[in-house]
Specification:
Blueprint (H helix, E strand, L loop, with lengths): L7 H7 L2 H12 L15 E4 L14 E4 L1 H7 L2 H4 L3 H33 L1
């Protein structure tokens, strides 16, 4: 990961039960799949923006990523250049797609169970 200097307030929040619950809820929207590499399990929620810290909303502010995808997103080229905004919008679109896709899969599984 890139070497960022985070404030003590941010670090306290990111280790708080409030953040852990929000991260878990975000991941559950895609049935714990990474939005960038959907065949990988998501391990945490990634901040697309820090503007709404403590009031994050999935898609707008956070998306579920695997550890490997998180490393890719934090590469210097993506993180510290104008490309970051493009990557963030791509991740938002992927999140919307994944939410719908994995929910449809879940419904189909439930219907299959009912038919047997």
């Amino acid at each position: 990961m890139s070497k960022h200097k985070y404030s003590s307030e941010y670090l306290a929040y990111i280790h708080s039960p409030q953040w852990k619950a929000k991260s878990k809820q975000c991941q559950q929207l895609t049935l714990n799949h990474c939005v960038f590499l959907p065949w990988h399990k998501s391990n945490h929620a990634h901040h697309l923006t820090y503007n709404n810290l403590e009031y994050e909303m999935p898609v707008r502010d956070i998306v579920p990523l695997s550890n490997f995808a998180h490393e890719i997103v934090h590469l210097w080229f993506f993180w510290n250049t104008p490309v970051r905004s493009v990557v963030n919008w791509l991740l938002r679109l992927l999140m919307l797609f994944c939410v719908v896709f994995w929910q449809v899969i879940w419904v189909l599984k439930q219907l299959t169970k009912l038919m047997h």
